[in-house]
């Protein structure tokens, strides 16, 4: 309960802090929507008469906005400049601050990106089955958790290397290719598709978008990856903090 | 000549600094490989489902990606280290004050004096993909020459766009458009014919990403067209002139980081 209250306070604080940076947030929205928009145009050119492509990619844009994570900036930089020490001294888990900022940025991105999603939907005359959209809610929530855990895990490598942006960039490339942004995974070659269905990236992006556009999928697959990533993040965090030496100590 | 010598000295120093950190070198090489691999894979997936995309075959697409990567590599090597996050690093942190006191053109110092030699890996990989794409294609000498001219024009436009974005900081120091620029840059990896008409018009005339890869690749593969060649050169001259003018106007407004 105390953790939830602390998280609530942190979320409110971060939402207010980021409200002054709306122009920068808008550039982040553009960054988030470019890759799915390219996918949309490319696959619409390949299948010009298939309305499911438009529906799928509009859903991918929304899912991407709702699940974006920037822990390589918000958390790793605190390791590099030593301000993580302040967080470690507070009588609360460090991750509360990280999650608070993550949720605040996502809320702003979703709000600022909503017009783009609407515009794309109207321009492509995309129709959604609202029961499918409702059914996709838990999938989107788990996708948000998965993306956060994956990015946070990669961001934790800042304890060992100063090339965290390269590492997170590599993680982003995997998500782009195998998560359903470069292509809906049903359109991948067989071997790639089988690999993509097992790895966690599909659960971060493509799966919730497919459910929202009327497809089927398993929550169990996402839950298994959440458990795995939570375990790995916990272990890596403990080893990393032991290694951490504050700047100026 | 003096400016070229300055670029050479800066590059040499940056190279020595870079190779001192071998793990970073390894990371940059790996990321360049995976980045380009991801771009090529995304296109190859499309060609498992179609023979051509917006009139471009697989080999032609590889030429396009190679050209795009080539210019991206040069941008990352010579332009980004200077102009990325300029409002923060150049204006608010006062680096520009230092440039203004030095005995060389401030525009040159602010936009081309630093370099990131490891990013040239992207350039080399781009050449590889370009070679893969043109293998087996019959190219004309005129096509190759016009490709070269248009690539140089694309580079000049890239530099000018970066300078123009940086110049915005003189009027609005808190406006940070780097993320936006890098996002829009990704659109250059695809032929403009793929996009809807409004975006196509923007990418050709307003924010000329078409000039980065689409136009030079088309000239290489389908032969030169005088109108396109002249248009590309004029666009480069106009963009460079505009960048120089904006820089001068901006400097007139600038009163120092601490004033």
From TrEMBL, chain A:
Matching InterPro entries: ABC-2_transporter-like
Domain of life where this protein originates: Bacteria
Alphabetized UniProt keyword annotations: Membrane, Transmembrane, Transmembrane helix
Keyword Metal-binding (UniProt): no
Record-annotated membrane-spanning stretches: 21-47, 53-70, 107-128, 140-160, 167-187, 223-241
Record-linked PANTHER family: SLR1174 PROTEIN, SLR1174 PROTEIN-RELATED
UniProt protein name: ABC-2 type transport system permease protein
Taxonomic lineage: Bacteria, Bacillati, Actinomycetota, Actinomycetes, Propionibacteriales
TrEMBL record, chain B:
UniProtKB keywords: Membrane, Transmembrane, Transmembrane helix
Coiled coil location: none
Region forming the signal peptide: none
InterPro entries attached to this UniProt entry: ABC-2_transporter-like (IPR010390)
One Pfam family this sequence matches: ABC2_membrane_6
Keyword set includes DNA-binding: no
Transmembrane segment boundaries: 26-47, 59-78, 107-135, 147-172, 202-221, 228-247
Name of the protein in its database record: ABC-2 type transport system permease protein
Organism per entry: Kribbella pratensis
